């Protein structure tokens, strides 16, 4: 069942992205930034976690979960060490995504040549 | 914003923009939406599959399986970008490929590849985040504000 919801919810988030591109006529960078901020705000008001529970990868794979994970890291660390934690913890959860994107991106640039 | 920009243009430029707007081909909205929905959904479905695999075969819990799943998706996306396949799918799928985390990896990898000829430090290193940078900057800035507000509320209450 989670598979169906993952497909549907993930699809709808991408559909919203396409809507922002085609109808609101944002640039791709504006669209992605808006979605990330939306994810952070949704987590701020406590709505993103229920969505992840419900849709699994449908909520964790789209870029909105990046904003959600940033807030999560900041909050987890803030609970332990107070206000400073907001700064020190912000990348804690997203480290996997950012690090692997840098490492694999760099490796690919070493191995491959750009295709016309 | 758009109106402000318009005021700075000369009359001929305004006329040209009107003309260009009239001849801009209508975007096939229904088709684009359907493709974005289908491809985005399938990528999340693949993500769910990888996540289940990590839970069942490698003893991850539902919470800890998220990170390796994202790493695998990013690896696949970087590889497909290097082979030149991801961009071909992206042409077809629009936001369906750019909204999932694979699109984030694709923007980093393609920027790295594109600037390879300028050298590894100035080209690859300096340009890698050219497209993905705005996502990180706005994500972190908004997360900081939200984290700050939530922490202050918790401290006060």
Oligomer, anyone? heterodimer
The 3D shape of chain A can be described as globular
Task: Please compute the radius of gyration of chain B using only Cα atoms.
Answer: 21 Å
Question: What is the percentage of strand-forming residues of chain A?
Answer: under 5%
Percentage of residues in helical conformation of chain A: over 70%
Order of helices and strands of chain B: HHHHHHHHH
Q: Report how far apart the termini of chain B are.
A: 40 Å
Reported for the largest beta sheet of chain A, the result is: none
Radius of gyration of chain A: 16 Å
Number of helices of chain A: 7
- What class do helices, strands and sheet pairing of chain B give? mainly alpha
Q: What structural class is derived from the secondary structure elements of chain A? A: mainly alpha
Chain pair sharing the greatest interface: A-B, 75 and 76 residues
List the uncertain runs of chain B: none
Give the tally of structural domains of chain A. Answer: 1
Total number of β-strand segments of chain B? Answer: 0
**Cα-to-Cα separation, first versus last residue of chain A:** 42 Å
Protein name (chain B): Stage V sporulation protein AC
Transmembrane segments (chain B): 32-50, 70-86, 133-153
Keywords (chain B): Membrane, Transmembrane, Transmembrane helix
Pfam families (chain B): SpoVAC_SpoVAEB (PF03862)
